Amino acid sequence: MPQTASTPPVKPPTPRQRARARTIEDIVRLGREHLALHGAAALSLRAVARDLGVVSSAVYRYVENREELLTLLLIDAYNELGDEVDAAVAALPAADFAGQFRALGVAVRRWALREPARYGLLFGSPVPGYRAPVERTTGPGTRVVYALVALLDGAYRAGHLAAPGGHATVAAPLAADLERIRSQMGLAVPDPLLARGALVWTSLFGAISFEVFGQYGAGTFAAADELFAHHLAVLGDLAGLRPAGRRAG
Amino acid sequence: MPQTASTPPVKPPTPRQRARARTIEDIVRLGREHLALHGAAALSLRAVARDLGVVSSAVYRYVENREELLTLLLIDAYNELGDEVDAAVAALPAADFAGQFRALGVAVRRWALREPARYGLLFGSPVPGYRAPVERTTGPGTRVVYALVALLDGAYRAGHLAAPGGHATVAAPLAADLERIRSQMGLAVPDPLLARGALVWTSLFGAISFEVFGQYGAGTFAAADELFAHHLAVLGDLAGLRPAGRRAG
DNA sequence: CGTAAGTCAAGAGCGGTGCTCACATTTGTT
DNA sequence: AACAAATGTGAGCACCGCTCTTGACTTACG
Asked: B-contacting residues of A 204-233, CB under 8 Å?
């Protein structure tokens, strides 16, 4: 559980502060349930108030407005996804980069299919009129891509990332972006692999979004698991990851 | 312009029917503007009625409800995107499959960046409580993927689609899906290439969605055009497309 | 031509939403 | 006990989707 951000660093929390924190937690929990059931656009403060057993205007004592609750739910969802992805990646041997990549992809997909409405809030069309406060959401919101980039950088430093073939080149303006990213994140991955990593990143979420949002026609792919496994394998190749040592080899 | 679906095949339209059709067109046009400005979830029949200079209940004479208007706008957007993609692909020589693929991707991205809210309606998180009527939207909604698949199939039949390398395999249940798709659409592309085509399809929209929905952090990629061009080149390779004859070679 | 059928705009109204505000109540502290 | 802060209440505003009735109008037909 993250500590409340506004807690002063010295005093222990008073009972009232504890009760207040608990109420906010309840509001977020109820909001999460409504979000999961009816989607982001249908999230209603009045409904949350009803479930909380309180009059509608009372929740404004705890949450500034609907946007604020959306922000809390956004951070909540980002962190839950980040936790599951981190755990899935950490469950594999440190040297099994291809396996870690597969685990990352599988973890994101599993969470997305389990929480489609929350996934839509994070990675779907932006909620109209709502702009996520960058200073509060970038941290949790970048956990997955940080895990992916760390994975690729570790593989590269371990000599497990193959140089790409193909006809794609990295134009100069793009190289400038990549150099900035590399220095900001302390990476060693060279441009062609880093650019491919960006593509793999967006492609992973593209495949998951198509499945979660029902962009494939209904019944087009009955073997959704196998389709995603195939895509993950291709994307792993695309990133330059060599599969770990052959089984029983 | 597609003819109105409910027109009887014999009688010419009466003035009343013409006026009615014009009013519906106006409603769709105004709805398109509201959609583009404020997003799908904020689309309001009352606001459309105000812009139309009519009382709110009057629009229900022409449009059954909000969902119906959303459906009309969905079809409208799918067709506009499909028209632009078809035109972009058709502008290239029939044998330049790699160029056609690039043109397809560029056309989708251009439309998406020009019409982010409408793109979000088509490819973003589904509108809560709204289920698109399959019988009316699958036709327009599959135009882009049909164009992509036709492109790949044509390239394969012309011997311009290279067999893929890598470690990915097509599991048996997935092969059954692909076989069904192949027979339904009359394709010749074999499983590994068809599965890769599906990945290229989702990856293309993944890259575009990330850009349109602002999933890249602000300022992460200043060279958005070059990034997308890179991705298109890699995805073309991934699909198996060989670049057209070297320039001046 | 006159009447009946069909069509349409208008307005009231229902229940829902986000949000604000004045007021009452509870609670912790002095 | 008294006070002040925190919290809950209910009314109210403006908006939303949607329904229904009413009156006016257009069209078609006898």
From this structure: 204-207, 209-210, 213-215, 217-218, 220-223, 226-227, 229-231, 233
Chain B window 27-56: residues with CB closer than 7 Å to nucleic chain D are 43-47, 56
* CA B86 distance to own-chain centroid: 11
- The CATH architecture annotation of domain B13-64 reads Orthogonal Bundle (1.10)
| C1’ C26 / CA A208, Å | 50
Nucleotides in chain D near protein beta carbons (<7 Å): 6-12, 15-21, 26-28
Level-2 CATH architecture, domain A71-239: Orthogonal Bundle (1.10)
**CA distance linking residue A75 with residue A137, whole number of Å:** 6
Is B199's CB within 8 Å of A207's CB? yes
Above 90 in pLDDT, residue A5?
no
Burial class from Cβ neighbours inside 10 Å (0-12, 13-18, 19+) for residue A38 reads middle
Q: What is the pLDDT of residues B30-50, one digit of tens each?
A: 999 999 888 888 899 999 999
Domain ranges of chain B: 13-64, 71-239
In DSSP notation, B169-223 reads ---HHHHHHHHHHHHHHT----HHHHHHHHHHHHHHHHHHHHHHTT-SPTTT-S-
> If you measure CA to CA, which chain B residue comes closest to A215?
B123
Which residues on adjacent β-strands are paired with residue B161?
A: B241
pTM value is 0.93
B227:A203 CB<8 A: no
Among candidate residues B144, B153, B141, the one with its CA nearest the CA of residue B194:
B153
What percentage of chain B's residues is helix, strand, coil (to nearest 5)? 65, 0, 35
Min Cα separation B91/chain A (Å): 23
